[in-house]
Automatic annotation (TrEMBL):
Chain's gene name: Yipf6
GO cellular component, one term: Golgi membrane
Transmembrane segments: 84-103, 115-136, 148-170, 176-198, 210-229
Membrane topology label: Multi-pass membrane protein
Localization, UniProt: Golgi apparatus membrane; Membrane
Protein name: Protein YIPF
Organism: Nothoprocta pentlandii
Biological processes, Gene Ontology terms: endoplasmic reticulum to Golgi vesicle-mediated transport
Family membership noted in the UniProt record: Belongs to the YIP1 family.
Domain of life: Eukaryota
Ranges where the Yip1 domain occurs: 73-224
Main location: Golgi
Key words, A-Z: Membrane, Transmembrane, Transmembrane helix
Length: 231
């Protein structure tokens, strides 16, 4: 009983000393959190809040145009990965879906897939390929992969435009052969362009597992283009 009482008195004495210390001594807690700011460099990003809307739109259009050029002349470049956007893929998807629109929505004899079907196939396919790439150990981000896959639909959009023009001139065997050659060439172009941008982001021993879904993705789009017949 005596040892327990001494222990309690010792603990109470220590707490009393700490209370007196905190009451008697003032510890400064206020301060200033600052981040050192160096001299602005010429390459530093500038704010676009005070920029005219016209200049902002023109700059974005030029960026989209440069990405189209990179797709038409595919080479190993980080342009599509560094400054990714989804404006170009959206324009290409809408354009391709509109050209594949064969008739009215309630038509029973529609010669081509409806707008929503094309839209869903393109974006859902791109998302599946991107998830497959990430699961296999890809090093690029989700939206970077969507950007590349979307921009590389450009050759197939051109193929669809050529096929529409060929169908206006001839729908016979000669027209089919011309459309077949154009679609095959643009299919190969889209596949090679996308793999040129995405191949380096994959592990060397898994590149085939990434290229195969891309091949199927553009093959389905090419098949829709080749089998399209206007109403």
């Amino acid at each position: 009983g005596g040892s327990a009482s001494r222990s309690e008195r010792l603990v109470n004495t220590q707490f009393a000393d700490l209370a007196d210390m905190s009451a008697s001594e003032e510890i400064p807690v206020e301060g200033e959190i600052t981040v050192p700011v160096g001299a602005p460099s010429p390459d530093e990003d500038f704010s676009t809040l005070d920029e005219p809307v016209r200049e902002t739109i023109m700059r974005d259009l030029k960026a989209v145009g440069k990405k189209f050029v990179h797709v038409m002349y595919p080479k190993k470049s980080s342009a599509l990965l560094r400054d990714w956007d989804l404006w170009g893929p959206l324009v290409l998807c809408v354009s391709l879906a509109l050209m594949l629109q064969g008739g009215s929505a309630d038509s029973k004899e529609d010669g081509g897939p409806q707008f929503a079907e094309v839209f869903v196939i393109i974006w859902f396919g791109a998302v599946v390929i991107t998830l497959n790439s990430k699961l296999l150990g890809g090093t690029i981000s989700f939206f970077q992969s969507l950007c590349v896959l979307g921009y590389c639909v450009l050759p197939l959009t051109v193929a669809m435009l050529v096929c529409r023009l060929v169908l206006l001139a001839s729908s016979g065997t000669v027209g089919f052969v011309v459309r077949l050659l154009v679609v095959l060439a643009m299919f190969a172009w889209s596949t090679l362009a996308s793999t040129a941008f995405l191949a380096d982001s994959q592990p060397p021993n898994r590149k085939a597992l990434v290229v195969y879904p891309i091949f199927l993705f553009y093959f389905v789009i090419s098949w829709m283009i080749l089998t399209f017949m206007p109403q």
